[in-house]
Design goal:
Order of helices and strands: HEEHHEEEHEHEEHE
Strand order of the largest sheet: 6-5-7-8
Distance between the termini: 78 Å
CATH superfamily of one domain: Glutaredoxin
CATH topology of one domain: Glutaredoxin
Radius of gyration: 28 Å
Largest sheet: 4 strands, mixed
């Protein structure tokens, strides 16, 4: 049977031997401008670009989709219907009451379905703009939208009053 001292000596010996382990260099081939070449033959700019690449992780992508679907299911189960009122009034600042909105969304945005759900409960005219389309992207640029979901709220004069990105932010704007 080994003693603690013997085990510690073996561990130290193995640690020292690991410091001298040398492998062989591996030739890495990857795609560049349509064809495969060894990375060692690339120019400095392409090597830097290769170092900046991020591998697509399919497991993480699947988990992200599953998380978004689970969030949608929880939202559907836990949402309390808005009370029946003639209209919900939004009062935010000195520019006046909010009269309509523009929602900028994208098809693969996990935060967009909950925002759409909250906006459907509000009795207010609005427009949904898919920022993933050419026209939607141009409209997003016009309003300096940098991410989805983004909801712009306008007063009766068409002036931008405020914007929101989450269901909680939208709900804070509601005043009965």
């Amino acid at each position: 049977m080994k003693t603690a001292v013997t085990v510690k000596q073996e561990i130290e010996s193995l640690k020292e031997s690991l410091k001298t382990v040398k492998g062989t260099s591996t030739e890495v081939y990857t795609r560049i401008v349509g064809y495969y070449r060894p990375v060692s033959n690339w120019n400095a700019g392409k090597k830097e670009e290769y170092a900046d690449r991020v591998e697509f992780n399919t497991q993480r992508a699947v988990e992200s989709v599953e998380t978004a679907q689970a969030a949608d299911a929880v939202l559907e189960e836990t949402c309390v219907p808005a009370p029946e009122v003639d209209a919900v009034q939004f009062v935010v600042n000195d520019k006046g009451n909010i009269k309509n909105y523009k929602l900028f969304y994208s098809d693969n945005c996990p935060g967009c379905p909950p925002v759409k759900h909250v906006l459907k409960q509000v009795n207010m005219s609005g427009e949904e703009i898919n920022a993933g389309t050419r026209e939607g992207f141009e409209e997003a640029i016009r309003f300096n939208i940098t991410g989805t979901p983004t909801v712009l709220f306008f007063n009766a004069a068409g002036e931008l009053v405020t914007k929101a990105h989450t269901p909680a932010q939208i709900e804070r704007l509601m005043v009965a």
